[in-house]
Amino acid sequence: MTVTGILLCAFFTTCVCASGVADVVLSCEFIEDSVGLRDNFARSPATLILREVFVGSLESLEALTPFVPPSNSDPRVIMFESKVSSFKIPNIDILLHADCNEREVMCEISRYAPHGLKERSESDHFLVSIDVAGGAFGTLLILRAVPQADDQTSRMNPELGLPLSQTGTMLTEVLFLVFSTVKSLSAPLRGAGLLNCGFRHQDMSPDEEVHIEWRQQHRGRGQIIITMATRLNDPEGGAMVRHSSKDSSMDGAQVVSEGNASVTLNNIQVTDEGAYICSVTIGPYHGQQVVNLQVVQAPSVSFSEEKLILKGNTAQTLRCHCRQYYPLDVQVEWLSQSPTDEEPAIFADQGSLSSHRKHGDGTYSLSSHLVVPPDVVPGTRITCRVSHVALDAPVSVSMLVEHL
Ligand SMILES: *[C@@H]1O[C@H](CO)[C@@H](O)[C@H](O)[C@H]1NC(C)=O
């Protein structure tokens, strides 16, 4: 599956019915293979109406009204309609709050060919990929068109050759979905991180096999982290988990009972950074989610000098060390505050930086050298302030200037 960079706005969300469900309407693109076009894909606008999305009780939604598809709509407009009330999907209510100004939602629909199924399946299965910008939610759904009763002499969608409901939508049911509620996470070096991935299914034979694979992809290299195989009717016994060398774990019982395929990585190293692909296969259906892991480690900041004593006309050097941080970017600032200053001010001279040193564990160190001129007033406080992505607020160390 190719992931394209097109972002569309989610458009409306409507209706909250009494039971904490809402209809979500997304503007999507329908993508078809098409020989002759430059990128071989034809894109056309499509609408996805997710009926009865479980969102819990959210007060602000009471004012909304149910979505009513336009009657007598143009049959060439592709409108997919799917009821999702039987699935409780964590965080899906994010789609309700997605809006054109704040969060963008990418939604793409294409045809799907279930593995090993023949008979019409190629023409009536669809794959929907939904991603909320910012990584708070992503899902992949496999839909199947619901056959319409013959007597309805229904209109057809000319492009898809499938019958339309009376309101002009294409009724589908969700057979399978894979989702992630944390598509990007940061974890501290040597700490642990949970790579989040879950799945839901419907109408699956209970002895169908579930196969889960987590693979890490980084700088063009891929490796399998953990795989697991079990049957849907096998609440714990038969789960077969195979690990790679990486310290990781998956709860086999949770996979079957909750559809939770999350994996915990322990003792995280810099080399564990990258994209992790959660692949779930049940019978003929297969879907995946990508979760990005970033490793962050805050610098430890200190001066190498214990005191700063100015003598006569000689300048003194102050060295501020930032040790063992990750990733590379770090910002060092020098400030000074004389006894008469109300607040510290940026030092005129910002010192000079050493080059980065890289350690065996992948972390970096750097130091900044400041030459303190002899005319600095005694009692002046000199501060080295360090900013880094792993720090919520900059870290400072400071020292009082003494004179001999
Ligand atoms: C899976 O379980 C863990 C706790 O064990 C939880 O934090 C996580 O949100 C669950 N993920 C899904 C997708 O259900």
Automatic annotation (TrEMBL):
One protein family per Pfam: V-set
Signal sequence interval, chain numbering: 1-18
GO cellular component: membrane
Domain Ig-like: 195-281, 299-396
Record keywords, A-Z: Immunoglobulin domain, Signal
GO biological process: antigen processing and presentation of endogenous peptide antigen via MHC class I
Name of the protein in question: TAP binding protein like
Organism for this UniProt entry: Hippocampus comes
